[in-house]
Automatic annotation (TrEMBL):
Alphabetical list of Gene3D superfamilies matching this protein: F0F1 ATP synthase delta/epsilon subunit, N-terminal
Alphabetically ordered keywords of this record: ATP synthesis, Cell membrane, CF(1), Hydrogen ion transport, Ion transport, Membrane, Transport
Molecular functions (GO terms): ATP binding; proton-transporting ATP synthase activity, rotational mechanism
Annotated family: Belongs to the ATPase epsilon chain family.
HAMAP family according to UniProt: ATP_synth_epsil_bac (MF_00530)
This protein's record includes keyword Repeat: no
Organism of this sequence: Candidatus Roizmanbacteria bacterium RIFCSPHIGHO2_01_FULL_39_8
Subunit structure comment from the entry: F-type ATPases have 2 components, CF(1) - the catalytic core - and CF(0) - the membrane proton channel. CF(1) has five subunits: alpha(3), beta(3), gamma(1), delta(1), epsilon(1). CF(0) has three main subunits: a, b and c.
Protein's name in the database: ATP synthase epsilon chain
Cellular component terms (Gene Ontology): endomembrane system; plasma membrane; proton-transporting ATP synthase complex
Amino acid sequence: MDSLHLKIITPQKIALELDVLSVTAPTASGEITVLPKHMNLFSLLKEGIIKIKPILSKSAEVKENYLAIGGGYLETDGEALNILVSRAYGQDEIDAVKTEKAVEEARKIISQSKDESQRKEALSMLRRSVIDLKLLKRRKTRSA
């Protein structure tokens, strides 16, 4: 069975390293899926959610994994897939209560602040928080 060796790297750590069947990621020009033997590719990634299909063992129950990522780059030669991003969080690393509070706070700052730099920072926080909430909803619908 063909596979890709996936490595997701953030400035803090190697967030994930494993062999996979495919990875779907949000690029600057749209969502793409990288499969084994993919042509050489270097692409700009935008904030969003990536879907990872790992190679399943007979006892494995997880058919897909999801990660919320920050912007970065994707590079593959068809055998290895390297994803370099500003952040990468799994579903279990996100606190729903804190994320909801961050959304509320960002919306409040956006609506009330006249300082442009504060508004830009709040918009960025809102974007990240909305992505994290989408990731949490995927987990809930999958486990139901």
